[in-house]
Write a structure and sequence with these properties.
With about 750 residues, the chain is an alpha+beta fold. Helix content is about 25%, strand content about 30%.
Amino acid sequence: MTPAGRGALWAALRLVLVLAALAAFAAWWRQQLEPDFRLERRLRLLPGRAEAPEAPVDLGGRLLSAHAIPCGRTLEFDVQVPGDDPLLRFFDGHITAHPELAVRLLAADGSARELEAHPTTENAWTQRRIPLPASAGERITIQLAARDGAGRPGLGAVLVADVVLESGGRGVDETVIAVASRAAERDLLSDHLTELVLAPGTRESRRIGVEGPQALPLEDGQPFLAHVDLVPPGARLDFVLHLGQPWLDAPPGAARVEVLAGEQVLATVDARLPDPAARSHGLSASVDLASFAGQPLDLALLRAGAPALWVGVRELSLSVPYAVPRRRFVAGQGRNVLLVVVDSLRGERLGCAGWETAATPVIDGLAARGGRWTRVLAPSSWSLPNVASLLTGVSPLTHGLGVLPRVRLSAALPTLAQSAALGGYTTACFSATPVSGPQHGLDRGFELAEVARLPADALAGRALDWLEDASQFEWFLMLHVRDPSFPHEPSIQDVRALKGGPPAALVERLRALDSRPGAAEALALELGTRYDAELAGVDRALGRITDWLAARDLLHSTLVVVVGSSGEEFFEHGGRLHGQTLWDEVVTVPLVMCGPGIRGPAGRAFVEDEPISLMDVTRLLGEYGHLLARTGMHGRLPPPFGPRLPEPVFHAVLRPLPTVTTADLDASRTRRWLRLFDHVTGRESLYDQPADPGSLHDLLSDATLDPERRAAVRLEADALAASHAEWVRSSLLLSAAQAEPAGERPP
C-alpha cells in the first residue's frame, strides 16, 4: 500500500473513532437528561384470536413459524404501544395464487386507516417495515388482511412470520411505575355484633354430616345495617350471599336482595337456586361506591320474597385500589421470582431423577444448585384446581375452582401475583392454557396476562420480550406450559436431543399389557420418546430464560421454581392421561427450586423424599420469594426448611364436572397408607404403599387376611376417613367456593 493510501486509511479510521465517540457521548448525555430513556424496544405480537395458529413454513429454503391468512380473512393484533416512533416489522410470502396483504390501523377512537397494501412474493420471505402513526401508551389494533390481486377475497393465503413492534425512546411501561391492585380495606361483617350461624349445608358438607359455611342470615323485611365513617376514593362494596333450602322439599322461589344507601337503591341481586336439585348456592356481587368518596355512608342489605329460601351474607367488605410503586432492582439486594408450571409432568422423567434417556440439563442444573422434592402431592388430578391451589394456598374445597361449575375465584382469596404486586413487584403471566387466564380469575394480580396455545419456546420468547423492560424492577413471572400434555407433538430438534430410544424397562412393562408384535414398541414411542422430547422442549425453553438472566448477572438473585400441575397415568392402573383418577402417578408431581436461600444442610443441594402438599409450595414461594402473603394458609413450611411432622395426612378430591370428568373420588395419604373412596360406586380401598409401591393390592377386599390383621386395616381406613372429613370441614369454614357472579348465571 502506498503512503498516500495508508494515510487515507488512517484518516478514515480516525473519523470512525471520532464519530463513535460522539455517538457514545450523545447517548450518555441523553441518559443524563432522561434516565429512563431506552434506545430500542422489540415486542413480538400474538394474534388476538387463534384463527391462524403458527406452524413451521419453508419458503425458499428458509424455515419460519408463520400464520397462514386465507384470502378474505384478517389477522388482528391488539397492543399497547410500548415506546416512541413505533415500527411494525414482519416477513410475508405465499405459495400459490399470488395474494396481496393490506396493513390497517384501528385507533382507540374507532377510526380505521389503511397504511399499506402490497403483493407478496411467491416461495420467498420478504421483510416489511411499516411506520405506525401512534404514540407511546396508545392502545391500537393492527390488522393484516389477505386478499387477491384485485383487492377481493379469493384463492390462496398469505403467510406472515415474526410479527414484531419496534419502538424507541421512553416507554410507557417506565413512566407509569405503579402496580394497580385492590385490597380489602375493611371487613364490615366482622364489625357487626350479630353472631354468625351455620348456613344450610353444601354438597360437600352434607357428605360428612355437617352444616354449611358461616353466614349472617337475612330476614324478610329486616335490613342488615353497616356504617362506613369515610368512604375511600375508588371504594367498592364486595359481598357474597349464601342461598339454601332450610328443609328438604322446601319451595325455594326467588328472593330479591337490595343494596341501599339511605333511600337510594345501589344494586339489586336476584337470589335463587340454579335448579330444583340444588340444596345450596352462592352468589357474589360488587357495587361501586366512588360517588360517595370522602363521605360517611350508611349501607343496608334488604331481603324480600321467597320466605322458604334461606338467604345469608357470607362476606361483606370494602375494597379499595392501591397504586404500589414498583421496586427498582438493585444489584446485590433485589429479588425476582420465576415460576414455571408444567402440565402433565411426571417426576421420574427428569435426568436428575435418574431417567436414562432424559434431556433436561437445565432443570437438572437448577436442582444441583438448589434442591428438589420428589413427592409433591397435588390436591386434585387436573390443572384448574391444582393451579388455583398453588396460586392461593388453599384447597379446592375452599376456592371451588374445578370442584363446582361456573365458579370464579373469590375476591376474598388473594393470589401469589396479588401478594407480589402489593409488595412492589412487577408481574406477568404467559400461559399456553386458559386455566390460568381471566376465565377463572386466576389472572388476578398480573399486570400482563397473556393466554395463547403456543409451545414453551414461543412462551419463553414472549417472556424475554417482557423481561427486556421489566428487569429494571423486581419482578414475578409465571410461565404455564402444557407441552408434555397429550397429544405429544415434539419438534425434531428435541427428539434428537434424547439419549437414545425408550428405556427397555418401559418397553417390557408395556409388553405385559399388550403382547401383539410391535404394539409395546409403538406405545413406548408415544409414552417414552415423544413425551420425553416434549419435556426436553420445555427444558430448552427454560434454558433460554436462565441463559438470559445469567448473561445479565440476574440468575443468582432470582428464585427459580419448576413444579408440575398434575402427573400423567401411563397405564399403571389401566388408564391413560389424567383427570379421572387419584392414583399416585397422577397426583404426584416434582418440584425443583434454586435461588437465594434454597440450600440444604451444610449449604449443599438436597433431594427431599418427604411427601409434601402443593399448598406447601405456595408457602415456600411466599417465604423465599419475599411475597407479602396471606397465601399459603393451608400450607406449612416443608422440610428441609421446616420440621418433619410425625405422621402427616394429605388429601385429594376429584368431582364430576361437565365435559371434564365423571369421577367422584376422595383420597387420603400418609407416608405409608393410601385410602381411596369412590362416591359413585361406594367402593373403599386401602393400600400399604411401602409393601405395595404400585398400589395394586387392596387390603380391604383381601379375604385372606386373618381377623386381627383385618381389624387393624379397618382401623387405619377409619382413621384416614375421619381425617378427610375434618379436612373437608375446615376447608368449608373458609369456603369461598360457591361465589358465582350475580347476573352471570345462564338461563
